[in-house]
């Protein structure tokens, strides 16, 4: 009888922090060619209505497609009913931008939306913020919407330089973020480890494989992430796979193809020392092909599935859809 009593008491207790999960709304899924559907992932903790946008290749079009697919129903459930979900999400749900690198397919949507955006922080490595303030929001390519660089400074966006391997709180959210440098064909890119209430999600910007880039950046990232895997705190990974295996190494330009992504997941498994079975891996930045009759994601997913010795759960992100990670 006492055993049943204690069992009921345990069931009535709040779930521990490590049960926290994440909602990922795909504002933009593709890499490179497909304007209007470029890398942008709205990440928020489950049961919270504020989050961050990881990269901003597409913003407004992604919000509108997401609204058409009822991705923002959580606002109605949280008593934040509004006739214009798109405007509300832009101004109230997205509390910060995390920019992995300054290539246009990762920042173009931010530029486009900036005249109608509200004051927000941009978190990035210093090298990324330097390029954005010098070469993008510079009063010539586009008005200076930031708080650095040439006058007049409009100041809609406030640059925050992330120091590698050091966690930083994101204001007005439950997140803190740690940035890790990545090698992207001679350009410094970055990964973001987002943590909230004992759980974590890992977002990677564009990256090449260590063997191709002649670097140890991904190995260092896997070493940093390994404890989260061992503690079962890592709820998912968003990582690029731009090309299928037919792409020659010398034409990768700092990106991954299927076999290289599989090799890097094995490297993560080796560093963590635990199985990756069932780990959600969202395959981002797939570049569409203008010459093949078969869709790029079909070929890439076939290759990933056939070589999936780590038994992760590969997910193809689709613009406007919500992926929940538990």
TrEMBL record:
Keyword list, A-Z: cAMP, Hydrolase, Signal
Gene3D superfamilies: Ribonuclease Z/Hydroxyacylglutathione hydrolase-like
InterPro entries referenced in this protein's UniProt entry, alphabetically: Metallo-B-lactamas, Pdiesterase2, RibonucZ/Hydroxyglut_hydro
Domain Metallo-beta-lactamase: 37-255
Keyword Hydrolase appears in the UniProt entry: yes
Signal peptide annotation: 1-19
Family from the record: Belongs to the cyclic nucleotide phosphodiesterase class-II family.
Name of this protein: 3',5'-cyclic-nucleotide phosphodiesterase
């Amino acid at each position: 009888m006492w055993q049943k009593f204690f069992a009921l008491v345990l069931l009535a207790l709040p779930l521990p922090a490590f049960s926290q999960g994440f909602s990922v709304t795909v504002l933009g899924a593709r890499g490179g060619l497909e304007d209007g559907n470029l890398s942008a992932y709205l990440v928020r903790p489950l049961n919270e209505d504020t989050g961050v946008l990881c990269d901003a290749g597409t913003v407004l079009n992604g919000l509108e497609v997401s609204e058409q697919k009822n991705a923002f129903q959580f606002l109605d459930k949280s008593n934040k009913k509004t006739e214009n979900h798109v405007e509300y999400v832009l101004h109230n749900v997205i509390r910060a931008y995390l920019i992995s690198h300054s290539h246009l397919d990762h920042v173009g949507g931010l530029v486009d939306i900036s005249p109608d955006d509200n004051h927000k922080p941009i978190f990035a490595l210093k090298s990324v913020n330097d390029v954005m303030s010098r070469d993008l929001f510079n009063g010539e390519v586009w008005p200076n919407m930031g708080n650095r660089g040439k006058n007049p400074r409009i100041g809609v966006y406030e640059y925050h330089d992330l120091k590698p391997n050091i966690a930083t709180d994101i204001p007005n959210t439950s997140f803190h973020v740690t940035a890790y440098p990545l090698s992207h064909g001679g350009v410094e890119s970055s990964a973001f480890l987002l943590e909230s209430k004992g759980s974590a999600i890992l977002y990677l910007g564009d990256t090449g494989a260590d063997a191709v880039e002649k670097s140890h950046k991904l190995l260092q990232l896997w070493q940093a992430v390994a404890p989260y895997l061992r503690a079962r705190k890592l709820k998912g990974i968003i990582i690029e796979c731009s090309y299928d295996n037919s792409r020659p190494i010398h034409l990768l330009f700092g990106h991954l193809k299927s076999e290289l992504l599989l090799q890097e997941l094995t490297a993560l498994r080796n560093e963590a020392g635990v199985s990756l079975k069932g780990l959600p891996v969202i395959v981002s930045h797939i570049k569409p092909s203008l010459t093949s009759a078969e869709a790029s994601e079909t070929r890439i997913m076939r290759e990933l599935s056939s070589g999936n010795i780590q038994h992760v759960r590969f997910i193809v992100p689709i613009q406007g859809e919500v992926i929940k990670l538990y």
